[in-house]
Amino acid sequence: MRIHNPVITGSLVVSGSISTEGQPAGTVASASYAVSASYAPVEGFPYTGSAEITGSLNVIGDLLQNGAAIETDPFPYTGSAIISGSQEVTGSIGYSYQSYGPGVWSSGGNLIQKRTQGGGFGTQNAAVFAGGTYTGGNCCNTEHYDGSSWTTGGNLLNAHNRPGTTGTETAGLIFGGEPHPSYSSCTAEYDGSSWSSGGALIQARYELAGAGTQNAALAHGGRNYFGGAAASTTYYACTEEYNGTSWASGGALAIARHGLGGAGTQNAGIAFGGECTGEVRVSCTEEYDGTSWSAGGALITGRKGVGSGGTQDQALAFGGATPSLQTCTELYDGSSWSSDTAMTTATDFMGSTNNSSANLSIGGSTPSATCVTQEYTYPFQTQKTFDYSSTTGELNLSGGLVTTGSVEFGYFEDVAAAWSSGGAVITARRESAGAGTQNAGLAFGGRTSTLVSCTEEYNGSSFSAGGALSTARCGLGGAGTQDAGLAFGGCESLSESTCTEEYNGTSWSAGGALINDRGNLAGVGTQDAGLAFGGQGPSGTDACTEEYNGTSWSAGGSLINDMKELAGAGTQNAGLAFGGIESDFSSCTEEYNGSTWSAGGALSIARTALGGAGTQNAGLAFGGYAPSPISISTCTEEYDGLSWSAGVALITERLYHASTGTQNAALAISGLSLGFTPTAYTEEFTGAHNRATKSFDYSSTTGNTMIVPPTSDPGVAGALWNNAGTLAISAG
Predict the structure, then answer these.
(1) pLDDT digit string (tens) for 408-435?
(2) Total domains present in the chain
(3) Confidence band (pLDDT; 50, 70, 90) for 403?
(4) Are 269 and 135 part of one and the same domain?
(5) Does 23 score more than 50 pLDDT?
(6) Contacts 24+ apart (CB under 8 A), 605-610
(7) Do 476 and 596 share a domain, yes or no?
């Protein structure tokens, strides 16, 4: 991989060798490379081997892969890409190619001076038209085109009628022209405002073609007319090359001709059409390699006085005469010509510019001299060959799809929030605590008919026994993860506890005791940054908050409201307290910022002994005991940091259950259900989300192909698949 002028921010790890081209070993040219971090000066650019870049790679210039430039910024990527290995895409994907055409001719701004047989060069939006002839004779006029209108430029030193031209608006070249022999060998150079003399052609002539640039031009073909009693016309095959100062002989055309079209560069030129001896209009095309001409594909319509532009592999021919005036347009692809959109007005001996996809027909004969400008545009068209929608699952292919290996496609569909059945606990209980996540949960403590110390670990489908608490208790607080859990407070027999224990994934060990003994409290956070708040102490309902640092508890800001049997969510510095009971069922929500509590949005349904999960800005409240009428609740509510909104109800009503997880992936574990009896039932909450559904699956290992319709309609859902050549349809 060759990188020109890279700016690398971050680390550059190279497996192989790297060096700067043109620099001594172990040096980095400050003019080309800026490195923020460290580098090891090594040799061997172009770089061979693997490169792992940590940080940003800003490439100024071209980034080359296998000798071809590839785009690095910005994405989406435009161009060709060859991918070896895997490509993973999240969302929709489309591939397309850009093609030209068909061409469009439209009217442009009129010349100030109508004329024919002048010379044009530049681009469609920055063109120059110089010389030519009109009813008053040959002229020296120069005009500039900006894409809409013409303005006056610097006059030619000498009038040039039917000259050769090439170059840009600010670096143009005009050479040859008539009448013979006064100035048909003259060359003039244009700088965008004035003309200056250049080196004279070796062979004086007119109706010749030009190509290239001001400093690397090509002149080929043309003729001279000798009047008088023995009038004669000489047709030329000679080619000359200009170096910015003087002309030198190049390889001769195979067919001598005049009024031909020319395009390309000095080393990759193209000549087509024109008229040869006997006033025969020719269709032959010749290609120049910097030394000699060789035959190319013939024009569909042979003609002279033709407009031209482009390159050797992408040339444009338009107008001309056969001898009748023509509107036909043709495109060359490096081997053959094809027809394109006809000109608006038939014209010959017009001026033209250098481009095949955005050219001009300037002035010319229609059949008299005209001031009309015609603009030709051969627009890009994007042809999509591969279009996959992650929304509908539809896949549209245009052309062939060749793959090596297995292929899968899927689509995303909206899935509503829902509670679903999870694995049952080993020991059904009430007033236990929870920690961890939906797929790595922890339930510990609680009571059945007696206090329990058992711990159970959840793997997303089933519970297994973990290490028992040192102290059996119920109504305790929990925080942390499955492998780093925290249990604190609770009720031991008839008294509240200050006991704290830490879990390592296998067993519990003693931690620092709470300052205040209490049960039916809430807890959030981690093993090293826990938060305990509310609860029931020896003196009644409590508002105190304590913060744990992994070793000991310290006092935090008190709740606004004394509360027990409440739920919590969040972290030590962004906590959430909601529900519970004091003298009555509570709907209040409070938010903790690491030092003080402030009021949040109230629950829609006041309740106690509920479960909680999530964060301060994405909380979840579910289950509990509610008034009006007094009942065990299935109610779920979601908090957005400001207010609560109704969620999907639990499958089974419950209170005094353990809870953990996030707003989109929570657990409701055990607790009391109908009849106020302990239930072993676990439920898993999944928030609304987009689900990836596979719609096409081909295995290169088994040869199996499966197509699943993108619908959830039970009358349609199912699959069309083949297995070992057998086609079958399975129901959804």
Answers:
(1) 666 667 889 999 999 999 999 999 999 9
(2) 4
(3) low
(4) yes
(5) no
(6) 605/633, 605/635, 605/637, 606/579, 607/579, 607/633, 607/635, 608/564, 608/565, 608/566, 608/579, 608/580, 608/581, 608/655, 609/565, 609/581, 609/655, 609/656, 610/566, 610/567, 610/578, 610/579, 610/655
(7) yes
